[in-house]
Amino acid sequence: MERKQKDRPLLLKRETETSQKKRNSERSGSLQRYLTNCSITRMEGEGNERKFTLSFSSEEPYDRWWGTEILAHTEGAMDLTRLNSIGVVLYNHNRDKVLGKILRAWVENSRGYAEIEFDQDTEADVIYQKVAGGTLKGVSVGYMVEVWEEVAPNKKSSDGRFNGPCDIATKWTPYEISIVSVPADPTVGVGRSKESGEDSRSEKEGVSSFYYNEKQLQINQNLL
């Protein structure tokens, strides 16, 4: 009995280290976030029948299994280069189901916005009709986080805007926007790093392994 009690701190330490490794691994992989208030609106004007404006991200706290995640939308936090150059609209994050293109993406009032245009092929038209008819209303974004700020309990973020405990993505890159039928469960680990050797749920859903790169995690000092 005495030996078991002595071994308990060591076992707890190992469990903590394993949990931390899993947490860091999944945070450095491909992530997805479902936006409940995405405001999909058809653009007005002649020739805009297949064009819509939508919101795909916000600073709303998002509960992951490892804790609360916040995507910063301050200047320079979100890299929109990919979306504005080769960005596409997918169905349920499946890279084999391309619905259309992203005409432009921008940040406004701490939210990410995009103008999209549906393609005219048969498969894209099916989803277009459901969006236009109001059947499909969900939007989800796939992204990678390059830099995190960890805010401890009862501490404030470095800019003083958020209270801990939370993890803030202070530098991140969205790489696709999806029209989704059913939102992903945020309590389940969606992305894993390439080095973990495990098949990720995102890869099974069709997200290219190109996005599974090792990312540096930055732990910023919290303000008192």
Terminal CA distance: 43 Å
Q: Biggest β-sheet, characterized?
A: 10 strands, mixed
Q: Sketch the topology as an H/E string, one letter per element.
A: HEEEEEHEEEHEEH
Strand fraction equals 35-45%
Q: What is the count of helical runs?
A: 4
* Poorly predicted segments: 11-19, 186-224
Q: Give Rg in angstroms.
A: 20 Å
Structural class: alpha+beta
Structure explained in plain terms:
It is a single chain. With 224 residues, the protein is α+β, with helices and mostly antiparallel strands. It is built from 4 helices and 10 strands. Strands 1, 2, 3, 4, 5, 6, 7, 8, 9 and 10 form a 10-stranded mixed beta sheet that branches. Strand 6 (88-91) and strand 7 (94-108) form a beta hairpin. The longest helix is centred in the N-terminal third of the chain and has 26 residues, at 2-27. The chain is elongated and about 50 Å long. The model is unreliable at 11-19 and 186-224 (pLDDT under 50).
How do the helices and strands line up, and which of them pair or pack?
Layout: H1 2-27, E1 31-35, E2 41-42, E3 51-58, E4 62-64, E5 67-71, H2 81-86, E6 88-91, E7 94-108, E8 111-118, H3 122-132, E9 138-151, E10 166-180, H4 201-205
Parallel strand pairs: 5-10, 6-10
Antiparallel strand pairs: 1-9, 2-3, 3-8, 4-5, 6-7, 7-8, 9-10
Give a brief rundown of this model.
The protein is an alpha+beta fold.
Short descriptors:
224 residues, elongated, 10 strands, disordered C terminus, ten-stranded mixed sheet, 4 helices, single chain, 21% helix, alpha+beta
